[in-house]
């Protein structure tokens, strides 16, 4: 099982994918992917496990949670990156490492373990971390540079995020930190997040867990101290009460980062954040976005930052999404921007960003459809009070008329309204048809009209 085969199986453990979609994630020739799937199926057959199936042009892989954990715990299921992460994290967390012991644990040759650790040594030396070797005993850490402190935290985060895919706590990384009660810590963090009404995603939760492990070996990250923490004394008291058995340093760091997040500041790696800000500037120019609400801009910043982090750290956490024709157009524009900036993201993350961009485009172009007319043939829509209430909340100027009046003088209505919608298939082509008058159908029809008009202008 090489790295490509492991990535294919990891993708298929999360959802069904077409050959074209696998190609977008793996950047491999389709024939090569087919051959790899045959190799994987031979492996699965030997292990007496369910094999990858191909039905309705989609590849799928169905195993139980226990079967999947059994697969990923096999020594031959480790990628090169995972072995490097394990050795790097263990060396820094323990402060020393014995390569002969690690060779036996990983079941690899002496030349392989030396080759892996040479890569780690080069990283540490380039980052000005100091270490030394004692013959027959191992390699010992003397001084960890600030850069390696940050890398250590990111590698922990990467592996906690990935473990959400694997559902596996028997993984090598967990064997290093097995004395830390992660379930208990996560439960306590959940209470604190609820107290401040903060809903963390897997990125932030992984960061707060990694932060605790960093603090446990005296790695401290500075937060710009620009807040009056007296205003957050209730939060401070709640943290101290619920985390009283944890070190004081972690309690202080948790308060600082939480206050920063509550105030809307996004704590990210500066390189990733800078790339994100440049991309957002280009997005505003490309899509002619003049008004981007702060809440949506922060969502966009977070989503792009997470996506860059995932791609950079090869985190294949994904699900299958189908795009509309309009979203395909937005994706084409977005891909142009990524190419221009020499950036790349996983296909699934691009699609999630596209759906957010679609919402932003709609908000910025509501003026393209200010006046809307709903035509009815029978009295159903007029009598539907719930629908009428929903329509009043949707911030469009929507009026309702009988088809009969429109048929008598269509020109009058066409000059008055930007969009006319009906459920009568016999009316002329200038009127948009909905199958039935539900609130969602009407809104979708309006949104499609706005997006089509927008793309006429942007093209």
Helix content: 55-70%
Radius of gyration: 28 Å
What is the number of E strands?
9
**In which order are the strands of the major sheet placed?**
7-6-8-9
What profile does the largest beta sheet have?
4 strands, parallel
Total of DSSP H or I helical runs spanning 4+ residues: 22
Shape: globular
* Total number of distinct structural domains: 5
Query: Strand share of the residues?
Result: 5-15%
Distance between the termini: 47 Å
What is the structural class? alpha/beta
Q: State the low-pLDDT regions, or none.
A: none
| Oligomer type | single chain
Mean pLDDT value: 87
Question: How would you explain this protein's 3D organization?
Answer:
The protein has 459 residues and is an alpha/beta fold. The chain has 5 domains: 3-76, Arc Repressor Mutant, subunit A (Orthogonal Bundle), CATH 1.10.10; 78-145, Arc Repressor Mutant, subunit A (Orthogonal Bundle), CATH 1.10.10; 180-262; 270-364; 366-458, Rossmann fold (3-Layer(aba) Sandwich), CATH 3.40.50. It contains 22 helices and 9 strands. The protein has helices spanning 3-12, 19-26, 30-46, 65-72, 80-94, 99-106, 110-126, 146-166, 172-176, 182-195, 202-216, 233-242, 248-262, 270-286, 294-312, 325-340, 347-364, 380-383, 385-393, 403-408, 410-416, 439-458; strands spanning 53-55, 58-60, 96-97, 130-134, 138-143, 371-376, 397-402, 419-422, 432-433. The protein has a 4-stranded parallel sheet with strand order 7-6-8-9, with helices on both faces. A 3-stranded antiparallel sheet has the order 3-5-4. It has a two-stranded antiparallel sheet with strand order 1-2. Strand 1 and strand 2 (58-60) form a beta hairpin. Helix 5 (80-94) crosses helix 7 (110-126), helix 11 packs antiparallel against helix 13 (248-262) and helix 12 crosses helix 13. The radius of gyration is 28 Å and the shape is globular. The model has no long low-confidence stretch (mean pLDDT 87).
